[in-house]
Amino acid sequence: MKKIQKYRGEIPYFIQQNCTDILIYVCSSYRNLEEYFSVLKDLFSIPVYALEVREEEESISQRYEIFEFFKRKKKAILLLTLDMFLRKYEAIGAYQVFQVGKEYSLSFLKETLEKYHYRRNYLLEKRGEYSIRGDILDIFPYTDSFPVRIEFFGEEIERISYFEIENQKSFQSMTEYKMYIDNNNAEENLLTFLKIDSKKHKIFFENVELLSYKLEEMILIEEKEEKKKEYRKEFETLYNFGTEIQLQQFHYQELENFRKKNT
Questions:
Q1: CA nearest 148: which of 112, 96, 101?
Q2: Cβ–Cβ under 8 Å, residues 158 and 175
Q3: Full-model pTM
Q4: What sign results for the dihedral spanned by CA atoms 16, 18, 22, 27?
Q5: Residue 141: which of 177, 168, 169, 172 has the closest Cα?
Q6: Distance CA 102, CA 154 (A)
Q7: Is 123 helix (H, G, I), strand (E, B) or coil?
Q8: What does the alpha-carbon distance between residue 44 and residue 122 come to, in Å, rounded to a whole number?
Q9: Which domains are assigned to the chain?
């Protein structure tokens, strides 16, 4: 395993310089992740994604974000914390297709949406919600910027369109709409899920001692022995295939020299 010493302030620039394809960087803290992400997003043109533990209702959408990251298969950066690296990801399944003129059972669609973690609400407020009011089915997909309104006549779809949440006005009618859903429960680790090639793609992680401490914390909390073994195995994979970044701190003399040069 290779080791590189860097100051924390250098990291976004180091990441940008080393990103020739897909680059994965495991941060030792949420603070570091947020700071790196902010600098990379504001100063550089390379697509950058950040995965961290969020509110429960947003956790499913993370799978789609990471899937979008992988779909590029080009120059892109993924920042994440250790817990997000060690977790398993469900493979994303097929589309649910809606077509004008075709018949669908509203009760079946309701069961399907709830099976894939959509929550019912009278009026949509955020991704992952759906609403049924009479012959109108509203869905806010995890993968779209706007909610979709599907209007039925009996069981036949009469109209499909996007709509604005604020004023409920429909726009951009379409004859067909495809929506991602999970159609299996197959779980894979992150590197397998993204089909990461350690010879082609770059993986960095910072402060192995701190990450090791966080690993032991996760193992201590976890009740299932099988999960504990999986955590250790994934951490070993990270350690063997990644490059460690040792974050340095400025020493007093270095700060003094810097101050003298700039006064």
A1: 96
A2: no
A3: 0.68
A4: negative
A5: 177
A6: 11
A7: coil
A8: 41
A9: 3-90+187-261 (3.40.50.300), 95-180 (3.30.2060.10)
Q: How many residues does the chain have?
A: 263
Asked if 6 contacts 245 with a C-beta cutoff of 8 angstroms, the reply is yes
How far is the C-alpha of 44 from the C-alpha of 76, rounded, in Å?
A: 11
- Token pair 């004023």: residue: 167
The total of other beta-carbon atoms located within 10 Å of residue 46's CB is 14
Query: Cα–Cα distance between 150 and 145 in angstroms, integer?
Result: 16
Residue 69 in 3-state DSSP? helix
Share of the chain above pLDDT 70, in %: 81
- C-alpha span between 214 and 199 (Å, rounded): 27
Whether 188 and 157 have beta carbons less than 8 Å apart is answered as: no
Q: Where are the alpha helices (DSSP H) in the chain?
A: 11-18, 30-43, 59-72, 82-86, 106-115, 190-193, 208-221, 225-241, 252-261
Annotate 54-82 with b (16+ C-beta within 10 A) or e (fewer): eeeeeebbbbbbbbebbeeeeebbbbbbb
pLDDT tens sequence across 89-110: 766 555 688 999 999 998 888 8
With a CB cutoff of 8 Å and minimum separation 6, the contacts of 91 are 182, 184, 186, 187, 188, 193
pLDDT tens per residue across span 164-188: 988 889 899 999 998 876 544 556 7
